[in-house]
Amino acid sequence: MLPSKKLFNLTFAVIATAGVTFISGVGVGPLPPLGNLLNPGTGVWTMARDAQLPTTRNMHIPGLQHPVIVSFASNGGAYIKAQSNHDLFFTIGYLQAKFRLFQMDLMRRQGEGLLSQIVGKEALPSDEFEDSLGISRTAATEWLDTPVNSPAYHALSAFSQGVNARITQDERTGNLPYMFKLLNYKPTLWTPIDSLVIQGDMTQTLDLSTTPIAYALLVHSLGYQRTMDFFPVLPIDKQHPYDLGPYPKAPLTKIVQSPFVTKSEYLAATALGHEIEQVPPQLLHQFSDSNNWAVSGSRTASGKPLMAGDPHLNQTIPSIWYQITASSPSYHFSGVSIPGIPIILIGHNQDISWSLTDVQNQSTYFYEERTSAKHPGQYYFRGKWINMETINYTIPVKGKASVHWPVELTVQGPILTDHGATLAMDWMGNIPSPDMQSLLGVVKSTNYAQFKSALSLWHSPTQNFVYADRYGNIGMISAGYYPIVNASKPWLPMPGTGQDDIVGSIPYASIPQVYDPKSGFVFSANQREVGPNYPYYIGTSADFFSNGYRADEIYRVLSKGHHLTVKDMENLQNNVRDDLAGRMVPKLLQALQTTSLTGNEAVADSTLSHWNDEMNVNSVGATLWWTFWTSYLQDTFGPWWKADHVPVNVDPNLAIGPSQTSLDEDLEAWTQNDPNNRAFTPPVGAHRSAPQVMRLAFSQTVQKLSKELGPRVSTWTWGRIHARHFPALSQIPQLGYGPRPSGGDEWTVDAADGGAISTAGPSWRFVMNWANGKGYGVYPGGQSENPLSPWYEDQISAWWNGQYYPIWSQQHISHEASTVVWNINP
């Protein structure tokens, strides 16, 4: 019998929700003919049949070479035992398509610029942007460059065959996932290029930014010097890089002292900012993402390493992850894969374990091309006029005529706007790279030397790969392509005439890395990986390098840790202590000692004086702290933004608020070490100091919360103004989870990114214990995308409560009484 909630959701979704939307509010367009939609044999109602949990049975799937055994744990985790490498990747493709086919199709359509074909004209800005960006062009080149006899070629080919075996089966039985029926279309057969497009989607989410555009707008408004005072190349507060040096010798990038932004560059940046505003926000890198660390046996109770990782990504249902454990003649691994990609990204094999965080270095550059009406279709580069390459796209639009979309390319990259100035974008994600080959090498590695060698092939997105092994070693390497730019200000749009081009990359031996450090631990949380003496430019404090507060908390806990256990790793991943609050609240309390407090102000002051800096859902101190810091930022920087007309309406990344890197770092450092900094005094007005602005912000905080939450301070709990929400990919509200009052904030290790209603955070929590070779993991969601399946959102409760599932060995799972087994034959 179907759960009543699920039955209601299904009925409501199909009959009442004629305006189904998805992918950030994009409209679905006309519903399919109701006769087809409600056909009892092949219509949307088949989702109830498809939602039933698998049962033990024998199966035949054409395309396999040998029998395969698939065992399912109680939470849907798939355990694959294959007799050939081909059958391993074939089965992974089949299972991902069985449980996540619509998600896979949606992701490839996003990267290939084909969303409008299934949802209508509202998706055109996304499709046009993706066609201009060129993920599909890069993916096609990568596939052509993949050697026919390479492991990557065989894995991608076998995976595609497995996906297509499931698509063919679903079409033959009328059992395609319900969203295909609701949107009235069928998926095309899968190709290796589709998998590489999805790989490009993830690179885009983690590496693509418009930072130079934001800098151009800031410099035009605030002037260069003030912009660099507020958003310096290097952060001004104390941080904890994981690679402490010594660093290699290399020429330091010369810093130009007084550049300016021309009117044409400003107009182009403004136009591009408005265009980007129309693109779904998840297509650009917005948040600092993820934590990972490893602890050597010198600091653990067992004497063996512990490793942990929790990537912070957009949290949706279904999740971005699909969990698998697998074995074949050449592969033995366990972890999480991305639907559409045939290998795990995070996990372990029999000898090593690894996890990822984003490096956050600058990977996107903008160039102003010199064009002339006298040379139409050309640009000036290295002393001569060169023809632009034009690629013409035809974008099919559901219910409308197809749209012609020409994309012009220069040597730097695609032209994104020609309003005011002609701006081209050079993005590292557009460099064809053998990342799939690199991942397969990582999965097969048995020691750090092999691990490091495999990562030498990795280009983008640049990632901090943490490492631990059963022999007792730990390490970290920030693998990827780090551009060396022949320019003095690469954080601004640069001339496209050739003199400021990328001239190479940082040598692999010189990228951030560490192996078996004396401290006994390594960690990354998107902080700048190296100290101020690192000789290469890798980005500014505004390139989404984290402000370092999560890293500081991890450092604080691990540096004091001895006899650490798996439970300690889990507790740290679920830690909601705000390290910045621990530094700033004492300063606030000190400032308030010199003023007279009455009523709720006195109660709030007393509450903060007894607060433990933890952003718990029922904490009043958390609410006071976050509201105060938001006001403190606005009261300090707001007058400058207003006086100089910073165009926040053009680029929301320019808005003043918590996690507007590097304003938090500035304010922290000035409050502690420079309380009379010029920034505290408005452009027009009397001199102010940090304590004065703090008192003003505190008064505003109490007034604001009294008005919004009522007169009793004791009721101002964090959960009243902060929640987590896991929206459904279909964007049918009833099929998501939340919003639900939640602890954490953007700087706690258990991060809640995205504001008052967080939709980004830990997407997978993983702990590896090399004392017994066992892993533990959980993600907020479930293995199935079918809303009626018991595996749709079954792991959210465990994730929410800080609980983990053991990741069993194949031998153990085969002896569990509850295990479901598929015996699959060719």
From TrEMBL:
SUPFAM superfamilies: N-terminal nucleophile aminohydrolases (Ntn hydrolases). Its EC number is 3.5.1.97. GO terms for biological process: antibiotic biosynthetic process. GO terms for molecular function: hydrolase activity, acting on carbon-nitrogen (but not peptide) bonds, in linear amides. Keywords: Hydrolase, Membrane, Transmembrane, Transmembrane helix, Zymogen. The keyword Lipid biosynthesis does not apply. InterPro entries: Ntn_hydrolases_N, Pen/GL7ACA/AHL_acylase, Penicillin_amidase_A-knob, Penicillin_amidase_dom1, Penicillin_amidase_N_B-knob, S45. The active site is at S290 (nucleophile). It holds the Pfam family Penicil_amidase. It comes from the Bacteria. The chain crosses the membrane at residues 7-28. Belongs to the peptidase S45 family. This is Acyl-homoserine lactone acylase QuiP. It comes from Sulfoacidibacillus ferrooxidans. The gene is quiP.
